[in-house]
Amino acid sequence: MNSTYRRLFAFASLYTNRVLIALAFAGCAQHSDLPSYGSITTVDRVSDLILSAPHGNYDTYTGDMVQEICSVTAYDCLIARGYRTDEHPINVNRPTEGVGVAYSEEQVTGRALAVCDYYRSNVEKIQSEHLRYYIELHGNNRSASAGQLEIATVGIDAARAAQIKQTIDNSLAAHGLSAYTTAMEGIDTIYFKATGAKQFGILATVQTALHIETPWAIRGSASSRAALVAVLKDLMNSL
Ligand SMILES: [Zn+2]
Question: Which domain holds residue 186?
Answer without folding.
Answer: 3-238
